[in-house]
Amino acid sequence: MSPEQAKQLVAEAAIAYLEWDWVVGVGTGSTANLFIDELAKIKRNIEGTVASSEASAERLRSHGIKVYELNDVGDLPIYVDGADEATKHLDLIKGGGAALTREKIVAAASEKFICIVDDSKLVDRLGAFPLPVEVIPMAKSYVARQLVKLGGNPVLREGVVTDNGNLIIDVHHLQIDNPAEVERTINQIAGVVTNGLFAQRGADVLLLGGSNGVRTLTA
Ligand SMILES: O=C[C@H](O)[C@H](O)[C@H](O)COP(=O)(O)O
């Protein structure tokens, strides 16, 4: 089974977690896009969505799905999104599509985070995927120096500006023994908006798509 087929399986499986009239938090990326396409099929059953990026908002609207501002709806019952890496403890690395900050905000405002990935994303240890860090532009060199002190090799993502007008530094070769601690430490560097570790608030449910169908891991 191809990763695309596996993503399609979990996108479909996530629909089963939704309830009538809910406002659904929607993530960003190729897997979230498949979920959006599935959502379009049942759009009359939901009240609307909150999107974690301009790209997802545009795709949702193109399907005729209502997109609310998070500030207008309060907390959400559910957030559905992909990830770049996931562990069986439901810790994640996200941000390959540069949407990590809004994703972290919508996830934080949601009661349940359903993470949907093809099973190639399941790892024993996070960090083979370079960790994305969103940075205020004037702080990029300072933040990069601090990331070197933490043992990482920071690389500016060329030509990328986030929906919030900031930059992304991808940190290679970071030793991530304790994901929640690394998440906290990097977030304390002045100029960092947030980093792509989702460990202090990881997923609540991980749906893994593969040749044996969908496997469900829960926190
Ligand atoms: O910023 C992007 C997000 O964190 C995505 O959820 C993540 O990169 C996974 O994307 P994809 O489903 O395309 O592998």
Structure in words:
GO terms for molecular function: ribose-5-phosphate isomerase activity. It comes from Arenicella chitinivorans. Its EC number is 5.3.1.6. With 219 residues, the protein is of the alpha/beta class. The chain folds into two domains: 140 residues, Rossmann fold (3-Layer(aba) Sandwich); 66 residues, Alpha-Beta Plaits. It has six helices and 14 strands. The strands form three sheets. The chain has a seven-stranded mixed β-sheet, sandwiched between helices. A hairpin with a 2-residue loop joins strand 13 and strand 14. Helix 1 packs across helix 2. The longest helix is centred in the N-terminal third of the chain and has 13 residues. The chain is globular and about 50 Å long. The two termini are 27 Å apart. The model has no long low-confidence stretch (mean pLDDT 98). Ribose-5-phosphate (R5P) binds next to helix 2 and helix 4.
Which helices and strands, and how do they pair?
Layout lengths: L2 H13 L7 E4 L3 H12 L6 E4 L2 H9 L4 E2 L7 E6 L3 E2 L5 E2 L6 H9 L1 E9 L12 E5 L4 H10 L3 E4 L10 E6 L6 H9 L4 E4 L1 E2 L6 E6 L2 E6 L1
Bound molecules: ribose-5-phosphate.
Low-confidence stretches are none
Oligomer kind:
single chain
> What is CATH's topology name of the largest domain?
Rossmann fold
**CATH architecture call of the largest domain:** 3-Layer(aba) Sandwich
| Nearest-integer average pLDDT | 98
User: What is the end-to-end distance?
Assistant: 27 Å
Rough outline: globular
CATH class of the largest domain: Alpha Beta
Q: How many E strands?
A: 14
Main sheet: strand order: 3-2-1-4-7-13-14
Q: Give helix % range.
A: 25-40%
Instruction: Enumerate how many helices there are, as a single number.
Output: 6
| Main beta-sheet strand count, sense and barrel state | 7 strands, mixed
Rg, Å, rounded: 17 Å
